[in-house]
Amino acid sequence: MLKFLLAAVWISAATLASVLYSFQMSQAAKDPNSAPAAFFGGLDYIRTPVISVPVATKGGVGGYFLARLAYTVEPKKLKALSVPAEMLLVDELHDYLYGNPQIDFSDRAALDLDAFREGIRDGINARVGDTLVHEVLIEQIDYLSKSEIRDNIIRRRINPTE
After folding, report:
1. Which of 52, 105, 117, 157 is the most exposed place for a label (fewest CB within 10 A)?
2. What pTM value is reported for the model?
3. Is residue 125 within 8 Å of 131, Cβ to Cβ?
């Protein structure tokens, strides 16, 4: 019986020592001064709600640009902002869309998404005066013309169950 008790104590001690050793080695492998990889940590992301921006054409509203975006930001810089980040991001999206009237949302093939992302990111970073936003991710992007909106309203009135 004493042999079994000593064997159990020995196995428990060896297991505890190996767990402690492996934990210490995994902590020593991490360098606290190294920057985390872009998509693997160190950055938070902010999701915006669906943003609706009226698109003015020929003196009136021609349709609505709808988007849901996500932004990757550094947590330290995000906490240092004096205004809510969502407001800043949505305002910059409006500024970008109204500041670039040459963008034709009705022609989806001509819309350059990379230039769109870079323009928003660069505009926010220029406004803040530092690199706040690293990436702009597009979750949803749509354009609804006035005729499409009217057609949807008429369909709902005719078939209210749909």
Report:
1. 157
2. 0.62
3. yes
